[in-house]
Amino acid sequence: QTSAMFMGHCKSAWHARERIDNTMEVLRKMDIDQLCLKFSQRWINVEEITGFFDKPLGFQKIILLKLIGVVSTIYHEPGPAAEEIRGVGIRHVKYKVPEHLLPLLSNTVFQTFSVELPGFWNEDIEGAWRAPVGYFQKTMARAMRLGMNEVCRCCVAKDLEDLKAVLRVAPRGERNMWIL
């Protein structure tokens, strides 16, 4: 029974990988600047993100390309992809983005793809993207949550005096680990 479940999971993963690779081929043939513009037009109209993701168009293009680029490699190189996602999460600690906003990004990407990839994007293709995008969101959220300790808070705030105070009260056996 376990073997059958494993084989079913492998088939499902292989199917998803193939669909994602096909999507990337379609995207390579597109005007990516135009796609990013359409994404940005949708993204800036998501009310919940006001104040968190108010970056210029160039940054929004980087956000979109980073998401689809990393997600498209998860089935090929899971280790490096996971490291990249954790890095993205740590870099976002300073923005204090609430975790519940992360799915809004993928929903906006999926909306953009559904409109900009007519005849290609369908429920099957979107379903293939859902699991790795969900992994991206969960891994990023975990990195943001675990990355915010007192030492990180002081570094983000660039508060050297507060950092010294935090390290003074840190237990001797844990002080070095707090800094890491």
What does this structure look like?
With 180 residues, the protein is mainly alpha-helical. Helices cover 74% and strands 0% of the residues. The protein is built from nine helices and no strands. Helix 1 (2-28) packs across helix 6 (123-147) and helix 5 packs antiparallel against helix 6 (123-147). The N and C termini lie far apart (43 Å). The mean pLDDT is 85.
List the helices and strands and how they pair.
Elements: H1 2-28, H2 32-43, H3 57-73, H4 78-91, H5 102-116, H6 123-147, H7 150-157, H8 160-169, H9 175-179
Helix pairs in contact: 1-6, 2-3, 2-5, 3-6, 4-6, 5-6, 7-8
Biggest sheet overview? none
Query: What number is the mean pLDDT?
Result: 85
Q: Could you tell me the radius of gyration in angstroms?
A: 19 Å
Q: Which percent bin holds the helix content? A: over 70%
Structural class: mainly alpha
Amount of beta strand: under 5%
Number of helices: 9
The count of strands amounts to 0
Cα distance, first to last residue?
Answer: 43 Å
List keywords for this structure.
mainly alpha; 74% helix; 180 residues; single chain; globular
Structure summarized in a few sentences:
With 180 residues, the protein is mostly helical.
